[in-house]
Specification:
With about 450 residues, the protein is mainly α. It has a two-stranded antiparallel ribbon with strand order 1-2. Strand 1 and strand 2 form a beta hairpin. Helix 3 packs antiparallel against helix 4. It is globular.
């Protein structure tokens, strides 16, 4: 028998499976053999491309939902803070004076001094437009406080994180001291913004890429100088930045903000010189001497001894603005504050920020000892900055134990959020419910 010739296995005979690396062949062009002449190859017509759709963006419902979930907290917090400050603002506390104080703002010279000058100019405009009332004064005070809270939040969001900044701004805004001083018939709420405004707007004036934003930040920064004692914070911040910030073009960065600052102050000085005021006495007030003269050693000593009790034990013995027997800083916030101070003192991070904060702490204590408890408003935002670092320290210690497990991470953040809500409830109850029910409150306000 003749042996059949064995055929070489083809691709189709290998188990019926084509090799994976075998590419599809291009379609063979058709050849037409004419009667006369060599064959000519005909070209295949290219398919006509379909027109592209006109910029129709597809919205992914999942990504939109995730965006809402991740940002809803940052939308709810400002609404909550605004409601907290506007709730019964024209009723609580009652107006103590029955006289029309708009007469003090018919002209700027009637205001008596040029401290808080930008706010007093606004009040003069209100009086000229016949819009002056206690409600407008309180609303202006709330606007100043909201701007201070904005700078406070942006500062901590850049330093630490957005989440810690939200926790800290809620604690600062809901503090009984912040509520009591903001909802008054005066303009001392401008004290709350000195430290946050200097640190945040100063950074914008030096490092922002927008020239317009640098100019605007410098103009707003110049207004802080009219807050009594604020000039010391501005000078110390400038010195610390010049000594420790490693920047080869620091002189070039300072030219624009410094020029705008000087022009703004020159314009304000022109207004001041037109007023019939005692310039030396007013200058002492601007340096942080509210009485317009040097304090005695005994008064400074008493102020230093009373400050710890006012902050952490019994508060102020002034029922017109405070529930006596309750501390200005609650004990949980005090623990976080101490933890933040210890953390900053030990860590090698945040070197320049540490210098700012500890220098400002010394200045605040000195000004409170010299001028009395009204300057606690300068210290409060700085205290809650230390609280923010205390929260950061506790969260970091928790995440060291559970570095990769998301469940303990969410549990830790949930506990911090619950503690923040408890502190907010404590301060709100103390201001809105506890204080108005005291006998001293009814005697002072005749309600």
């Amino acid at each position: 028998m003749e042996k059949k010739q064995q055929k070489k296995p083809s691709g189709l005979s290998m188990g019926g499976v084509m090799p994976r690396n075998l590419k599809k062949l291009n379609p063979v062009s058709t050849v037409r053999i004419p009667q006369n002449g060599p064959p000519k190859q005909t070209q295949q017509k290219k398919p006509i491309p379909k027109p592209r759709p006109i910029n129709k963006r597809k919205i992914n419902p999942g990504s939109a939902l995730e965006f809402i979930k991740s940002n809803i907290l940052y939308a709810v917090v400002p609404v909550f803070i605004l409601a907290l400050y506007l709730f019964n603002i024209n009723v609580l506390p009652p107006h103590m004076s029955s006289t029309d104080i708009s007469a003090d703002y018919q002209n700027l010279s009637d205001a008596g001094s040029f401290d808080f000058l930008p706010v007093k100019i606004i009040l003069v405009i209100f009086a000229k437009l016949h819009l002056f009332s206690y409600l407008y004064v309180r609303l202006l005070s709330v606007a100043l406080m909201l701007f201070a809270l904005f700078c406070f939040y942006k500062l901590l969001a850049g330093w630490i994180s957005r989440r810690v900044a939200v926790f800290s701004v809620l604690l600062f805004a809901s503090s009984s001291w912040a509520l009591s001083q903001t909802r008054q018939d005066n303009v001392t709420a401008m004290l709350f913004g000195v430290i946050p405004v200097i640190l945040y707007l100063g950074n914008l004036a030096l490092h922002s890429k927008s020239t317009a934003l640098r100019i605007l930040s410098s103009i707003l920064l110049a207004q802080v100088i009219f807050v009594p004692g604020a000039v010391w914070f501005l000078l110390s911040a400038l010195i610390i930045y010049a000594l420790y910030e490693k920047d080869e073009v620091i002189a070039g960065k300072l030219i624009l903000p410094f020029s705008v600052l000087m022009l703004t102050l020159a314009a304000s000085l022109g207004i001041i010189l037109r007023l019939s005021l005692d310039i030396p006495t007013q200058a002492l007030k601007m340096l942080g001497l509210q009485v317009g003269s040097l304090p005695s050693v005994a008064s400074v000593k008493n102020g230093l001894l009373e400050l710890p009790g006012q902050l952490f034990y019994n508060g102020l013995n002034d029922s017109s603005s405070w529930l006596y027997g309750t501390p200005i800083i609650d004990w949980i916030s005090a623990v976080l504050l101490i933890a933040g101070i210890i953390y900053l003192a030990k860590t090698r991070l945040f070197l320049t920020k540490k210098r700012f904060m500890f220098t400002f702490l010394v200045l605040c204590i000195v000004l409170i000892a010299v001028n009395g408890p009204v300057f606690i408003s300068l210290l409060l935002p700085l205290a809650y900055m230390f609280v923010a670092f205390g929260i950061t320290y506790l969260i970091d210690q928790w995440l060291i134990i559970f570095p990769n497990n998301p469940l303990p991470r969410m549990l830790g953040l949930g506990v911090v959020g619950l503690v923040v809500l408890m502190i907010i409830g404590y301060h709100a109850e103390r201001y809105f419910i506890g204080w108005p029910k005291t006998d001293a409150y009814h005697q002072i306000f005749k309600v």
